[in-house]
Design brief:
The complex is a heterodimer. In chain A, 66% of the residues lie in helices and 5% in strands. Chain A is mainly alpha-helical. Chain A folds into four domains: 4-539, Sodium/glucose cotransporter; 558-629, no CATH class; 634-744, Signal transduction histidine kinase, dimerisation/phosphotransfer (DHp) domain (Helix Hairpins, Orthogonal Bundle), CATH 1.10.287.130; 752-905, Histidine kinase-like ATPase, C-terminal domain (Heat Shock Protein 90, 2-Layer Sandwich). Chain A is elongated and about 160 Å long. By secondary structure, chain B is α/β, with parallel strands linked by helices. Chain B has one domain (3-123): Response regulator (Rossmann fold), CATH 3.40.50. In chain B, α2 runs parallel beside α3 (60-69). Chain B is globular, with a radius of gyration of 13 Å. Classes of the chains: A mainly alpha, B alpha/beta. Chain A binds chain B through residues 684, 687-689, 691-692, 694-700, 702-703, 706-707, 714, 718, 721, 725, 854, 856, 858, 861, 863-865, 868, and chain B through 9-10, 12-13, 15-17, 19-20, 23, 32-33, 54, 56-58, 83-86, 103-109. Chain B: This is Response regulatory domain-containing protein. Chain B: Keywords: DNA-binding, Phosphoprotein, Transcription, Transcription regulation, Two-component regulatory system.
Chain lengths: 909, 124
């Protein structure tokens, strides 16, 4: 019904158009008028994410599992929203280090390790092959559906005669096409501008095609979404399939799928290529971060209507609904457009993926091998650049052949979506090394390598191997019963973890091993200086003062560098490196002139852009004499700005601290000296006070000894004085000891609830006889009946007696008068002892509480001749009251003399 | 008979000194503080002064200083009595012109000997 020639002719015309776009883009780039300097082109090129899998498979998955297919697009949406934190940094690092692929990126991060690069390249190759196979399958199947409708599409392969197989020829045509516009230039870091332009066009074509089907199905086949939904509502089985919880594995399945898509968006080689390697301007991320999610929204808009319509009309395989629905309506043009859209989605993916993979194969796998063969690069076998191009061309061919083989041998047992998810889970293994390496300086090469190996092995065992079993290449019992019947080794239920969908299950175990080993091993391994340098350059990439790459310290000549570059890059690129620094070219002295550090750095960057960082590093080392890298200079430059500020701040802080400590020491010293002086003074005062009674005692004792004939009356008088002075002496010693204990805190008071009024009454009564002898008027006023306080009763009595004695000494000599008053004040109890003596001048009030203080002012002649105390009574009283939590102070009495006030907190029961 | 003025604020010490001096055959006057002491010196012009340092009001040092500034009593023999045993005070006393310095508690016999010796010195 449709001529095969028309279909094939249209397909080739479309490929030719793409090629022209690419060629045009490349020419514009060479002229310096880049086509891709627009963020919109950048965003469209990212849409290479939507492959034939999206184009055909989304409808298939929606028909089977409902809206869960959206998770595959929510992951990248999330990733783009987080672009300022992750992608921006990756883009900047790639530009600084001239990164050519994700393998190069990871290799560069871990000390430009060529082994790690080779590992990642190999893993990418294994992981992506099924994905390429998937695209070949999609093209083959869609072509068969288009040709054979309404008959079922017979896509079984004739293994005997592969040259009769369409997919083989599709693979070959694509190989030629990719070789034509993928390997025109060697320098991968000079970007494939033509390719990016072509991909942008492809993204538009597949979007238009898909929207066209969607609009046709929704608005023409059915009378709008409402009508479609009404018909669906009449079919309960369909309603059920569209429910959200219909995702395999339930809630864990949702999270697993989202995470899987999120991680794969960074780590798929083609995504890394368009997002990071082909990015020409960091600012493009800003628009892409909303434009790309918008693209995803548009292309998914009609997935569910198409799926529902297909299910309603019973149109065979859901993966082909996009084609069969317009075909069933008898249309001619639209199915062709859909076929081109699908072809577009498939070829776009295959082109970018294959270019990315071939770059890895040549830079990470072949170059390190070639560099091992010493003669190959030090000999004079002409331009090695041609070698590299040929390696890439062969690699492209081999990758597509591998894809074809996978498709031919295994592909039939999986649906489109399944193959895609297997690849997603595989490339997700790069994510820990990539993302953790971006932020954690401590991640080491050994950690990354072991993590990758372990994660990859688990992925292989839990997803890829069961695929072989399902295809009949291995025993199906491997899945159902586990290898050798060991059930906990079953690939879909490792360690008995069952009930999860196979992707989340695989992702969980592989990530656990991957991240665990990366972090665990990194903590216990020491990075080499090169690793430390690169780790610093990567993690600090957003630092404004970062040097672009590690500094070279060795010695070489300009001539040696020139020869090296010409052999690997050709004359044009070499010329650009030298003229950028105004270095003269090709003169006789070039081989004597030492190359500047900047020139060496430039040369390494240029080589990195073509060969990958690991090989470039090896090559530069080969012409360099002396130490290769100076990590410290990098770190120094990094640290000078931020750390100098920090250092200054700390220094200032330290000197302030020092000044403060010095001040503290000075004042502590001052206090110590003061305490020392006070101690000396105290000792002097004590000795003075002790000597006074002792003098009387000794004098009278000697008088009595030397005067045997003294009259009896005098003898009695003198002996009486000696007894009194002895008592005074022992009282003084007691008081001094009391005070010393109080001041050192060694005096233990035993506070119990006690009635202040009662103690005051008892104390007053003890002194009543003395008062009477002196003719003193004593008044006891208790304004409260009880005044419960917490105090040591003996000590409290000592204090009150002290106060009364003090008052008695200073009361008026003619009509002595003392009032003791107990009252309540502000919730505390107070006791005041007032006398009608001369009083204490305001300035002296606090001094009376000092040790051995005696009022001896000229202005107070009235106090002369009064009995002297030890000068310790009030200080001891105050210390006791303080210990009990109260206060003791002096005021002017209403009686004219002194009022000593005591306050103790109320004790409430 | 020589006249001795004893100045001390401790009544018991004053009493013992009074007894000692009169027992040694001297005439004794007493003063409890510095100001009284200066009045007594002006009144009775004693032949010797036993002067305590710690006194209410003006101290013994001040009394001595004032005496040495007057024409009449510049050469009055003074024995300082003190409970302060510190070397600095002894030196201060001598610097102000004290003739002797006795630390409390003292040997009564030695004190009497010193008083007698000083009086003899002046008499000759």
């Amino acid at each position: 019904m449709r001529g095969d020639l028309v279909v094939i002719g249209t397909a080739f015309s479309y490929l030719a158009l793409l090629f022209m776009v690419a060629a045009w883009g490349d020419r514009r780039a060479e002229q310096g008028r880049s086509l891709i300097g627009s963020p919109t082109v950048y965003a469209l090129s990212i849409a290479v994410y939507c492959t034939a899998w999206t184009f055909y498979g989304s409808v298939g998955r929606a028909a089977q599992y409902g809206p869960s297919f959206l998770l595959i697009y929510l992951g990248p949406t999330l990733a783009m929203l987080l672009a300022p934190f992750t992608l921006r940094k990756m883009v900047r690092i790639a530009a600084q280090q001239r990164i050519t692929s994700i393998a190069d990126f990871i290799s560069a991060r871990y000390g430009k390790s060529s082994r790690l690069g080779a590992l990642v390249a190999l893993m990418a190759l294994i992981t992506i092959t099924p994905y390429i196979a998937l695209q070949l399958k999609a093209i083959t199947v869609s072509h068969a559906v288009l040709m054979n409708y309404p008959l079922g599409a017979d896509t079984t392969l004739d293994n005997e005669r592969f040259w009769m197989d369409r997919s083989f020829w599709i693979a070959m045509v694509l190989a030629v096409f990719i070789i034509l516009f993928g390997t025109r230039h060697l320098d991968a870091s000079e970007r494939h501008e033509g390719m990016v332009a072509a991909i942008a066009v492809e993204s538009l074509v597949k979007l238009i095609a898909f929207l066209a089907v969607g609009i046709f199905v929704t608005f023409i086949l059915f009378a709008g979404p409402a009508a479609l939904l009404a018909e669906v509502a009449a079919t309960p089985a369909l309603m059920h399939s569209m429910r959200l919880e219909n995702v395999p594995g339930g809630a864990t399945g949702w999270v697993g799928m989202l995470l899987l898509a999120f991680l794969a968006f960074f780590t798929l080689p083609r995504q890394f290529q368009v997002l990071v390697v082909e990015n020409v301007d960091e600012q493009h991320l800003d628009r892409a971060s909303w434009l790309f999610p918008l693209y995803l929204l548009l292309i998914n808009l009609f997935v569910i209507p198409i799926a529902l319509a297909g299910l309603l009309l019973g149109e065979g395989d859901p993966d082909s609904f996009v084609l069969t629905l317009p075909l069933s309506a008898g249309l001619e043009g639209l199915p062709l457009l859909v076929f081109i859209g699908g072809l577009s989605a498939a070829t776009g993916m295959v082109i970018v993926e294959t270019i990315a993979l071939s770059t890895m194969v040549s830079n990470q796998l072949m170059m390190p091998l070639l560099l091992k063969v010493k003669g190959l690069y030090s000999g004079r076998h002409g331009r090695l650049a041609d070698w590299l191009l040929n390696i890439r061309r062969v690699a492209i061919l081999l990758i597509l052949l591998l894809g074809y083989l996978y498709h031919a041998l295994i592909g039939d047992s999986y649906s489109l979506v399944t193959i895609g998810l297997v690849s997603f889970a595989g490339v997700a293994q790069f994510a820990p090394a990539l993302l953790i390496g971006l932020y954690w300086r401590g991640a080491t090469r050994q950690g990354a390598t072991l993590g990758l190996l372990a994660g990859f092995f688990i992925w292989f065992y839990t997803l890829l191997l069961p695929g072989f079993a399902q295809s009949g290449w291995l025993e199906a019992s491997l899945i159902t019963q586990g290898p050798w019947g060991i059930s906990w080794l079953s690939p879909y239920a490792l360690l008995g973890l069952s009930g999860w969908d196979i992707y989340t299950h695989s992702l969980f175990w592989s990530m656990l091993a991957n991240v665990g080993l990366l972090v665990g091993i990194s903590l216990f391994t020491r990075p080499t200086p090169m690793e430390q340098t690169q780790a610093a350059l990567f993690t600090e990439a957003m630092h404004p003062h970062l040097p672009t790459t590690a500094r070279w310290q060795g010695q070489t000549t300009e001539g040696a560098l020139y020869t090296l570059l010409v052999r690997y890059l050709g004359h044009g690129a070499t010329l650009r490196v030298f003229t950028a620094l105004d270095a003269p070219l090709g003169d006789a002295e070039a081989y004597q002139r030492p190359a500047s550090g900047e020139l060496i750095t430039r040369a390494e960057q240029a080589l990195s852009g073509s060969l990958g960082s690991a090989s470039a590093s090896v090559l530069i080392n080969s012409v360099l004499r002396g130490e290769a890298l100076d990590m410290e200079s990098v770190l120094t430059i990094l640290d000078t700005t931020s750390q100098a500020l920090e250092y200054n701040r700390r220094l200032e802080q330290k000197s302030q601290e020092l000044a403060r400590v010095g001040e503290e020491l000075r004042s502590a010293n001052e206090r110590l000296r003061e305490v020392d002086r006070m101690k000396d003074e105290f000792v002097a005062m004590v000795s003075h006070e002790l000597r006074t009674p002792l003098t009387s005692i000794r004098s009278f004792a000697e008088i009595l000894r030397d005067t045997p004939d003294i009259e009896a009356e005098k003898r009695q008088h003198f002996l009486g004085i000696m007894v009194l002075e002895s008592q005074r002496l022992s009282r003084l010693i007691d008081e001094i000891l009391d005070l010393a204990r109080l001041e050192s805190g060694r005096l233990s008071l035993k506070p119990v609830p006690v009635d202040l009024a009662l103690v005051a009454k008892q104390s007053s009564e003890a002194l009543a006889r003395l008062h009477d002898e002196q003719g003193l008027t004593f008044e006891f006023i208790a304004e409260v009946s009880t005044a419960m306080v917490l105090a040591d009763p003996d000590r409290l009595e000592q204090v009150i007696i002290n106060l009364l004695e003090n008052a008695r000494k200073f009361a008026d000599t003619q009509q002595p008068r003392i009032t003791l008053r107990i009252y309540e004040y502000n919730g505390a109890f107070r006791l005041s002892v007032e006398d009608n003596g001369p009083g204490i001048p305001v300035a002296e009030r606090e001094n009376v509480f000092e040790k051995f203080y005696q009022l001896k002012l000229k202005e107070s002649p009235k106090i002369q001749g009064r009995p002297k105390g030890s000068g310790l009574g009030l200080p001891i009283s105050r210390a006791i009251i303080h210990h009990l939590g109260g206060k003791l102070w002096a005021e002017t009495s209403t009686l004219g003399g002194t009022a000593l006030q005591l306050e103790l907190p109320r004790h409430s029961v | 008979m020589a006249n001795v003025l004893v100045v001390d604020d401790e009544p018991n010490i004053l009493l013992s000194l009074e007894f000692l001096m009169s027992h040694a055959g001297l005439t004794v006057t007493t003063a409890p503080d510095g100001e009284t002491a200066l009045l007594r010196i002006a009144d009775s012009s004693p032949d010797l002064l036993l002067l305590d340092i710690s006194l209410p009001g003006i101290s013994g040092f001040e009394v001595l200083e004032q005496l040495r500034r007057t024409d009449t009593e510049r050469h009055l023999p003074v024995i300082m009595l003190t409970a302060h045993g510190r070397e600095v005070e002894r030196e201060k006393g001598f610097a102000l012109g004290a003739d002797d310095y006795v630390t409390k508690p003292f040997s009564t016999q030695q004190l009497v000997d010193k008083v007698k010796a000083l009086l003899n010195e002046r008499a000759s």
